[in-house]
């Protein structure tokens, strides 16, 4: 296992006016044994970045290093994919249908090891690691659920002890209930083996819940890389805020540690002065159902999810505000409520300001 360092990597497809800069000057460090998710909308360059790391593509500029070894860029002849010791888990397991699970897992091992006692022990260890029973070894891929197939795909990628494991939207073909349990099993397996891993996804919940670090991409560029709570609570700009969750963005005026807006006075996470755009998460908006404390509004719509609910409120001055509250006791459309902001609020220079 080793760390992964991407420095100023750029990759374009095509030439002239039709050229697409799929990855644009991306710099990212994934420490040894840690898990990074790359989050971004469709077409932002996530898969291209993975393919550059795996060695299926060569960067136009910049370099890629595994530990102290440069595998592409810096005038070094690109190391071919098979010599990079990368494990790759695609969207759908891509298991060999004619091989049983044990043979699939053993596939990446040196041929001499595959049929040996050592090889069989490694397969058993990998099945255990991805939380599948040992007797699954004799099953064919089509005798497994989608989630089980993805666990086998991970086991196959981990068996040869790769330097880095790359996962390309590995849960996207699974239904919601299987996604959660498969993702948790994968995260546990990666942590247990202290594996350096990079997973690309366009699913915010997946990106935030699985990783040590979230790298947000937009239009080929890396716009923020930070621990999940920092990306969620202190996004680098309002677009990142709206991409990694719901956000209420309101104009305000800041004076150092505080700002005022239609929801009253709020406390800022970082001091600012003058006109600002304030980013408030819906769960920071406290909905008071009984007291007239806060800013008055009328509930327009309630979306009930069981564990919590989203409450769309229109303030008396006409401003729409989304609040999220526990589902135990909630208002109904037409109720008059009072809103207050809790916790720290992130302020941005408003769009168009210098
Ligand atoms: N081989 C190629 N030739 C030309 N353009 C390409 C090629 N591969 C990718 N692109 C373009 O590069 C951009 C980034 O594509 P990429 O597949 O990396 O995005 P993505 O974020 O992985 O998207 P998705 O989530 O939809 O898979 C897109 O505009 C895409 O059309």
TrEMBL record:
Presence of keyword Iron: yes
This protein's record includes keyword Membrane: yes
CDD domains: ABC_Carb_Solutes_like
Classification via InterPro entries: AAA+_ATPase, ABC_SmlMolc_Importer, ABC_transporter-like_ATP-bd, ABC_transporter-like_CS, ABC_transpr_FbpC, Mo/tungstate-bd_C_term_dom, P-loop_NTPase, Transp-assoc_OB_typ2
Ranges for domain ABC transporter: 4-244
GO MF entries: ATP binding
Domain of life, per lineage: Bacteria
Record PANTHER family: SPERMIDINE/PUTRESCINE IMPORT ATP-BINDING PROTEIN POTA (PTHR42781), SPERMIDINE_PUTRESCINE IMPORT ATP-BINDING PROTEIN POTA (PTHR42781:SF4)
Protein name stated in the entry: Fe(3+) ions import ATP-binding protein FbpC
UniProt source species: Nocardioides flavus (ex Wang et al. 2016)
Gene name per UniProt: fbpC
């Amino acid at each position: 296992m080793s760390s992964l360092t991407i420095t100023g990597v750029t990759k374009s497809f095509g030439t002239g006016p039709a050229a697409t800069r799929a990855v644009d000057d991306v710099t990212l460090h994934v420490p040894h044994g840690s898990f990074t998710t790359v989050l971004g909308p469709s077409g932002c360059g996530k898969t291209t970045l993975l393919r550059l790391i795996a060695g299926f593509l060569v960067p136009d500029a910049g370099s890629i290093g595994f530990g102290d070894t440069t595998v592409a860029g810096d005038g070094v002849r690109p190391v071919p994919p098979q010599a990079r010791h990368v494990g790759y888990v695609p969207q759908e397991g891509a298991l060999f249908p004619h091989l049983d699970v044990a043979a699939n897992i053993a596939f990446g091992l040196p041929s001499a090891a595959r049929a040996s006692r050592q090889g069989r022990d490694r397969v058993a260890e990998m099945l255990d690691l991805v939380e599948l029973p040992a007797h699954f070894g004799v099953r064919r891929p089509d005798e497994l659920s989608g989630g089980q197939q993805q666990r086998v795909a991970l086991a196959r990628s981990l068996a040869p002890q790769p330097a880095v494991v790359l996962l390309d939207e590995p849960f996207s073909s699974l239904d919601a209930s299987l996604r959660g349990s498969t993702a948790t099993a994968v995260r546990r397996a990666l942590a247990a083996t202290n594996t350096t891993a990079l997973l690309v996804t366009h699913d915010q919940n997946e990106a935030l819940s699985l990783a040590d670090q979230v790298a947000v991409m937009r239009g080929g560029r890396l716009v923020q890389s930070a621990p999940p709570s920092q990306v969620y609570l202190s996004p680098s700009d309002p677009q990142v805020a709206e991409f990694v969750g719901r956000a209420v963005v309101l104009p305000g005026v800041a004076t150092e540690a505080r700002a005022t807006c239609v929801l009253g006075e709020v406390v800022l996470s970082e001091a600012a002065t003058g006109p600002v755009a304030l980013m408030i998460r819906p769960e920071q908006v406290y909905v008071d159902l009984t007291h007239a404390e806060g800013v008055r509004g009328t509930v327009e719509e309630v979306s009930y999810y069981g564990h919590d609910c989203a409450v769309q409120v229109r303030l008396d001055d006409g401003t729409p505000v989304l609040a999220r509250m526990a589902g135990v006791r909630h208002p109904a459309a037409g109720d008059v409520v009072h809103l207050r902001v809790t916790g720290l609020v992130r302020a941005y220079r408003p769009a168009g300001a210098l």
